[in-house]
Amino acid sequence: MRPVTALVSLGWMALGGCALWSRRPLPAGAADRLAAPRIDPGRTTVARAGGVVIGVLARASGRQDLHRRLDPVRLGRCLLGAAVAGVVLPLAAPGVVAVLWGAPALRQRRIRLGRADDLQRQLPEAVDLLALAISAGATVANAIEAVAHRAGGPIGAALDEILRAASGGRRLADVLAERAGLLGDGARPLVAALVAALRDGVPIGASLERLAAELRQDRRRRAEQAARKVPVKLLFPLVACILPAFALLTVAPLLAGALDALRP
Description:
Layout: H1 3-22, H2 30-35, H3 45-61, H4 66-69, H5 72-88, H6 93-135, H7 140-151, H8 153-166, H9 172-178, H10 188-200, H11 205-262
Helix pairs in contact: 1-11, 3-5, 5-6, 6-7, 6-11, 7-8, 9-10
């Protein structure tokens, strides 16, 4: 195999490996690390450099809200990457800055989407547990507490946070209404039913059973929809990685040999 063909093949293989790496499963606890309080990065050199640049931009533009809109660590990393790329390969500096600036946002977006999917998958079982506890004679508040302690995952963490917020003397119904977003958009009918039961004493046993059945059907529809998207997602690695590599390994050597034979 010619060296150029081998290098091009290795390049396509590396591109495919990067694509597969970007789709790897999220590490355990990634959503918890994202939601955890951020450590103040003001003491680091990178953060100080970013803070200085933000201060200069704020004074030059007259916009003092840049300190809230821009992350000094993120900006400092972009400056450091641009400086290194400018010394090693100046043409790659814009690409390095774009990657360093966009990668954290893409990672956080992926973690948020992963947490939303986990909430949606776990929600039917949580509703079943609530219906079971209420049918066994527990109050709505006790049922929520029992599910929070036994459900685990993002649902259990969200319910624990709601219960901690209500432990200071506030009404559980008010806290549920205010923090419904912790349970995801798919839990809004559940939150509405729980709030109505806590405030007005509306019986919700049958409503929870119907809601659980609807959530299971919705989860099945989303799984079928994701399965139908798999062939479309496979087109990119097939066209961009496998076919070019196959052509380089089979067709390119034949063409190179034919060209050598045609030389006088």
